[in-house]
Specification:
By secondary structure, the chain is α+β, with helices and mostly antiparallel strands. It has helices at residues 2-15, 59-62, 76-80, 86-91, 109-112, 127-137, 173-183, 196-213; strands at 33-39, 42-48, 68-75, 96-105, 118-122, 149-154, 157-167.
Length: 214
């Protein structure tokens, strides 16, 4: 009970970063898309499997039958050894080894997550190639050149991969996600991003602009 109370207290502080109210666009997006999902304390991105290029095409075999691959970023010790006290949560942003979390969804994020937590963005020409390259380049490899798995996740079922980059207060899961969207050619900056609400607000602003232009 104490652990749950501490967790809820921590989540309340984090959610105070203010996620935006996401309104669905009545017009369908054109071309390649990327999903941005607010998962409480962090934001993730989702890529439809048919859009995966040669950099990430192996995920079709890793998650057979998946329609979307979700990618998130985290501090390794934070996700593989769940914190138990409020002090551990506070220490979470300290520098450390990072992981890239991959999850295969058999549905779209719009079906898997609350609509108010899911944003769909249209990518510019060449955006999906740049996005896939961004993710691939952060996957550390083993001696055979394959992405190195460091742990399995069970909620949801997925895999944690060793990351090349390091986790710190100025490069959190939310910074990583915002930078990925920027790399994909979207007008979203990771500068100053720490909380998920910041990433979601920036993504939502772009989504509203795209919706008005359709």
């Amino acid at each position: 009970m104490m652990k749950r109370s501490l967790y809820l207290l921590f989540m309340t502080v984090v959610m105070a970063a203010c996620s935006p109210v996401i309104r669905p666009c009545p017009h369908p997006p054109a071309g390649d898309v990327v999903y941005v999902v607010g998962q409480g304390w962090h934001a993730e991105i989702g890529i439809p499997v048919e859009e995966l290029n040669e950099d990430l095409a192996f995920y079709r075999k890793v998650f057979p039958g998946a329609r979307t691959i979700m990618f998130g970023y985290a501090k390794k010790t934070f996700v593989t050894s769940p914190p138990e006290t409020i002090s551990e949560y506070i220490l979470g942003p300290l520098p450390g080894t990072a992981t890239v979390h991959a999850v295969g969804l058999r549905v779209t994020p719009l079906e898997a997550y609350p609509p108010e937590a899911t944003i769909t963005l249209s990518l510019p020409p060449g955006g999906i190639k740049a996005l896939c390259a961004y993710i691939k380049n952060d996957l550390a490899t083993d001696t055979s050149g394959n992405p190195r798995i460091v742990a399995h996740s069970t909620n949801p079922d997925g895999l944690f991969y060793a990351a090349r980059s390091q986790y710190n207060l100025l490069h959190t899961c939310n910074t990583w996600t915002a930078n990925a969207l920027h790399q994909a050619g979207l007008p979203i900056s990771g500068d100053g991003v720490i909380f998920s609400g910041q990433t979601m607000t920036r993504a939502n602003n772009v989504a509203e602009t795209q919706c008005r232009l359709r």
